[in-house]
Amino acid sequence: LTNQQINEAGHLTIGGVDATKLAAQYQTPLAVYDVSKIRNQIRRFKSVFEDNGVDYAVSYASKAFATIAMYQVIDQEDAHIDVVSGGELYTAIQAGFPMAHVSFHGNNKFQAELEMAVSNHVGVIVLDNFHEIELLNDVLEAHDTSAAVMMRITPGVSAHTHEYISTGQEDSKFGFDLNSGQAAKALQQVLANPRMNMLGIHAHIGSQIFELNGFQMAADKLVEIAADWHAQFGYQPEVINVGGGFGIQYTKDDHPLAPEAFVDAIVKTIKQSASDRGLDMPAVWIEPGRSIAGPAGYSLYTVGSRKDVPGLQSYLTVDGGMGDNIRPALYQAEYEAVLANDPAAKPTETVHLAGKYCESGDILIDNAKLPATKPGDVVAILDTGAYGYSMASNYNRNPRPAVVFVENGESALVVERESYADLTRLDRPYQAK
Ligand code: LLP
Question: Is there a contact between 211 and 256 (Cβ–Cβ < 8 Å)?
């Protein structure tokens, strides 16, 4: 936030390219990714595992941002992905992503999605509920094949985060419940099924988490379950997957630990707990989404209208908004913004940085501290790489922005800007019969 790169002209640079030039070349609103930040974060996660000498997978939670180019970069870094829909899986297939490195998640995978996963030989299907065990069994029978599976359980840990993005507490739609014995029953079904190869156990406690203790509790809980299963059923999970959720810094008020500090604590907890309980050390898998995609992303907007209300904070409106970043409207998420042509300028006023959508809640930054800003200026909102473009909509029939990857001073268009024709491409006229 503070040490954004600035060039001789005093402009913001992203991946070595002047942000005002990106805005001029590709137009705004524009999603820009600094690819080296993506690579670097994956490498940092990996080095934690290497330093601890454990088997691992860093599996990028691609819901944070999934495009063909992103999947290619993830594969270049030899990381895995998780997908949660046929659409994400399709995109990964189009990207040429190795299917053995794919985990398929979701609390209501359709039969067609399971067929797609099975026929493309995805690495592991993460079972979420009893209905799915039956459905997958049918699909495997029909294809006369088998598949590696993991079981998602709700560990009964509630993470201190927004309730919509907290998932590990008992009252959750995701995973098998532990205390009622559902998880043990599901395990027995899976172990008895010759078409399912039970690889391990999974839990995800939530997202944008700042504290260690939830992860440590969940990690310890997973080992405890593994020990119970070992004692009761003679089964030991090869993999313990602790999900994602590592928080990132969006504003100066956020003080998360460094993402790798979470992972280090998780690995050490599992090591200790496994050794205390006399279990073999399992492989540890993580599924970071936000911490890989978030800090790498920038949203560039052009400032348009301004409304001054005497005695109240002014509204400065940009050419995008909740259609390309719904997080402020949905979760009261906070961001910081800078002027692309003078990111170091001292703020002189606090304004509502508003979007162009027809909704009062479409405010990108409620209290944006900005220097004097005029129509035509380009504003960069920082750290928008996760759950921004991936949650974009066509509300108000605004086309979704283009996406550009920048690295080593070069930019490349990786998703074209939608056109008006794209917006009506699937529409059909209606004639009353
Ligand atoms: N693994 C599983 C099973 C998940 O459900 C999620 C996120 C992740 C991994 C990745 O979590 P991350 O590392 O990105 O925190 N739309 C919300 C976030 C929803 C997260 C859903 N699951 C937001 O914009 O904050």
Answer: no
